Structures are given as structure tokens and as C-alpha cells.
């Protein structure tokens, strides 16, 4: 449910300085004020919620990092947006990986919907989500929504690695980030509560890093869960890692960066002896943005073009990406994305 008053109140902090413009991927792609953080805030303040700029925000929150006034841009977008029927449909599909599997199969068969055509174009062949639970599990492996269907081997690798030391239950589910980003705030809370209930007080080790970041903020929604991003857990527990003679580059997903999670990926790779060729800006937005990659194909592809040049400049084909929507974007750019778990 949109909360325009809250969005307008939070917008009052904006002093229109424009420091956020050049970090914004949609502004860089369009050079249009409408598609900039400042332009979006102006639309919210004037109540023009049908402005196309409100729809085209990737919700990467890079503008928050650049803003000297502490504008909570993510909250403004989440409170101001009214999800379309198509977005609500995508959210419901993401809530159940089995539903996502069936929807992806229909899309691959040629379902005549724009969003389905895009899914067919950019996703690998879907596989049935794996199920697993040890008796009396002591921790949860949270695989998210995309990974169990499109990156099943990564999920199984992570599961196998954790099972060497722990009794594990695998949960394939949605964290509600897409809902929250696109204005379905009440449903995002329902999804968070459902996940909190399913975890039954057990620590959650989460594979998709942007979901980890969102779940770490569940407390603000009134839901208590103990969450670790997968590389964070590996590093905090100092789990033994294999040595690897490899050269690759690392993509830093936007929400994981906001939560300070990308440093654990780097430290794990360092312990493994992997040679990382740094991008000039590893945080450059990839154009995925959860449902964005399916819902805004033209702008998403334009944002990918800039990222493609950034990755290509490293000379690496393999890119570590701990977020699976980003991995879909990197695949579309022609690279080979891998999760840290794929190296274990
Ligand atoms: S959001 Fe922040 S950085 Fe952007 S124009 Fe407003 S005050 Fe300046
Ligand atoms: S969240 Fe990202 S896309 Fe949206 S205005 Fe901020 S920087 Fe631009």
C-alpha cells in the first residue's frame, strides 16, 4: 500500500544539490532529470506518482551513499510506489520457487506476454527446486527464489559444503525484497513473517547477498531473524577453504554493499589464493534489480552495456557474483558468473 505522506515527509531532507545524479544508473543511461533521484523526489513531492521516473528506478540505493543530506531514498520509493498488476503477478511467482519453475517453463514454451518473452530470453533452462532437510537441523540454508530454479548446482554445492559440519535444512523461498522495492510493503511484511516462522529461531545462512541484506533489515519490520550472508558465515566461522589457482573479477551487488557484505567475499577469495582482477568500479550497477530485469527490458539492457565494458576491461570471463539476479544480467552480457559456493 502506497504511503505518499511518509514518502513526502522523507523527501523534505533533499536539498536538490544533485550529488546523487552521477551515481544513478538510470540518469547515466538517459541523462534525464525525470530518471534521476532528484527528479523522482520532485515527482513524489508534487504527488506525480504516474511519472515514468518512479517506475524506472532500479532500487539500487546508490544515491543514498552519495547523498550528503542522508535522504532515505529506498524508503521514499518503497512508500511512494504503487505496484502494477504485472509486478504483483511477478511477486506472487517469486514467492514460490515451484511456481517460478512452472512459469519459466511456460515462458520457454513461448507464452505471449512481454515479461514471459524476457524471462525466456535471459534465463537458463529451469530445473525443479531441490528439497533437503537433515533430522533436527541446526541451521537454515536460504537459497532464495531464483537460485533453486536457475542455479541449482550452486545451491547443492553450498548445501554439501555446510553439511560437512552442520545439520542443515534448505529453504527455497522469497525474502520480499522485490515486494518492498516495488511498493507492496504489507505483503513484504507477510513474506518476512512467513520466513521468520519457517526458520524457527535457527540461524539463516543466505546464498543471495541482496536477500541477505534485506533480511538483515527485517528487524525494522518487527521480524527477528539471525541472518548471515553465505561468505560472511564462511569467514566469521573461519571454515576451511580449498586452495584455487584461478583468476577472476568480482561484482559487488548493490544491497550487499550497503550492508557491508562484499568484504567477506574478498577475504574468502584471498584465503583461497584466488587472483582477483579488480574492476575500476566493482559496484557499478548491473541492471538486474530483482524484477527490474524482466519489467524494464530496454533500460535494463542499457545499464548492462556500461557494466559490460567495466567487466571486459579486466580481461576476465569469470565473475564472482553472490546475487543471482546480478548473475542473470552477467550471463546476458556474455560472462560466466559464479557464486563463492561454486568454488567449494
Ligand atoms: S537526494 Fe541527496 S544528493 Fe540527491 S539531490 Fe537530494 S540532497 Fe542532493
Ligand atoms: S535507487 Fe538507484 S536507480 Fe533509483 S534513483 Fe537511486 S541510484 Fe537511481
From TrEMBL:
The keyword Transcription does not apply. The keyword Repeat applies. Keywords: 4Fe-4S, Iron, Iron-sulfur, Membrane, Metal-binding, Repeat, Transmembrane, Transmembrane helix. The chain crosses the membrane at residues 139-159. It comes from the Archaea. Pfam families: CCG (PF02754), Fer4_8 (PF13183). Residues 4-35, 47-76 form the 4Fe-4S ferredoxin-type domain. Gene3D superfamilies: Alpha-helical ferredoxin (1.10.1060.10). One of its GO terms (molecular function) is metal ion binding. PANTHER family: GLYCOLATE OXIDASE IRON-SULFUR SUBUNIT (PTHR32479:SF17). This is 4Fe-4S ferredoxin-type domain-containing protein.
